[in-house]
Amino acid sequence: MRNKYQKKSKHTWSWASFSGLWAVWLGLLLVSPGCDWGGSDSSEKPPQPNRPLRIAVVEDEVLAERIQREWMAQNAEPISLQNVSRNSLDGAQRMSADVILFSTVDLGQLIAGQQLRPLPFAANDDNSAAEPNSAVDLDDVLPLNRRLEMRWGEQTYAVTLGSPVLVLMYRKDWFEKLGLEPPTTWTQYQDVVQKLANRPEFAPQQADEAWFAVAEPWKAGWASRMFLQRAAAYVSSPNQYSNVFDVTTMKALIDTEPFVQALTEMQAAANLLPADAKRLDPHEAAEIFWSGNTPLALTWPSAARTADSLLAEMNVGFAACPGSDQFYLFSSGQWQDRAHVVSVPLLGTSGRMAGMSAGARDLPSVMNFLAWLTSAQQDLRIAQQSPATTMYRFSHLVRPQAWVETAAKPAAEQYAQVLRNNHAATAHQVLLRIPGANQYLAVLDQHVDAVLSGAQEPAAALAEVAAEWDRITDQLGRANQKDAFAKSLGLNL
Questions:
Q1: What is the pTM of this model?
Q2: Alpha-carbon span 278 to 280, nearest angstrom
Q3: In order of start, what are the domains of the chain with their CATH numbers?
Q4: Cα distance between residue 385 and residue 403, in whole Å
Q5: Does residue 92 have a pLDDT over 90?
Q6: Strand pairing report for 53-58 and 99-103
Q7: pLDDT at 215
Q8: Quick one: how far is CA 129 from the chain centroid?
Q9: Can you point out the beta strands (E) in 34-180?
Q10: Fewer CB within 10 Å: C terminus or N terminus of the chain?
Q11: CA–CA separation, 252 and 463 (whole Å)
Q12: How far apart are CA 109 and CA 51, in angstroms?
């Protein structure tokens, strides 16, 4: 039965029905305009079921092992899994794979390297999908995952296994004792962090363990993401597409006023935290929270974590990331007031996706595998077991307890509501995922870390980032990068 938040699908075919219709669909795909299948060699060959389906997994051995185990337990046909380096995504050599599983941030690089084919369905804004869609049940996928993350321009290139956004996880019991409320703006957030700078008298002392006013993910690879989440509310408006880049010129805007403000606020928070605070990723931030060494963390819950029951009595709450009642309008260079505070989710900070390789040999087998991988039967065996994913379907939100740590189950409905609100938001941002995204983010990461360590000031650091980003853009081709940036935002300029 579909839940009350889900629009009833026009398509009710089962996953099993797909195999009987693949020939018709394949014929339509091969003659459909606008679908670049990357060459005629593989699509013209008949299926050869004796050959194992080849699955390439980009730098996620845990996910690869989980898929291998579940597939072999349920299917007679073998599959071949290989872990591949992110360095292989540039297209210098086509992957010997039928399916590629990758991080959300890698989508643009895979497309630029001609490693992926578009999938044979659309994911339209009106929550309907073009035939054939029922094999992967797109109608049940949450809107921002379906309409934005899975797409590149107007084409769908991947199915999602879940893409978390950072949320506030806090100790409701301690907040009540201290007279605090979850902050809704970054200014309020800084005030709360200031009040939590010292361990409360009622908080149990953990031997030889530091106290954190808050646990934010600032580890290498995450400092840039946390910074962009902080800045998201300052640069987001429904009619403003430019953010880290000017969408019309591809000039870096990362050194402009809203970003300097976000990094200055991040620096102020760092000054209240121990040195170990800069060595946390989201999962380690959650561990600090569950250990009782902080009442506040920016992370997301995950059933893949083993949050022991030593703190099962914790009264946990979830809230959206802080936002702002103002945003910066790049066209005028002025701050604009909002009617109310807006929290802006940053999509793509983590997450896993699966797409059809450009070298796929057997298209119907690939589509059957993607349908199996994202089916309701496999969600709790595969996606739910990865700390890099979270709920991505309306049907997941009905039973969210399965997706969080044991100690967080009483608050799981609250987390599900945060996700509902995020996907209904009119303002949102997506992490940079254009070709070279990891280069851009590595540069930003280095300079954000320098600011948090006291080696640089925010404005000077971001000026250097902007200069280096413009150099990377010119090196990769400004026109190509401009086109990719627009498509990554779902635009066709």
A1: 0.88
A2: 6
A3: 18-157+352-387 (3.40.190.10), 167-347+426-488 (3.40.190.10)
A4: 8
A5: no
A6: parallel
A7: 97
A8: 22
A9: 53-58, 79-84, 99-103, 116-117, 151-152, 155-156, 159-160, 167-171
A10: N
A11: 10
A12: 28
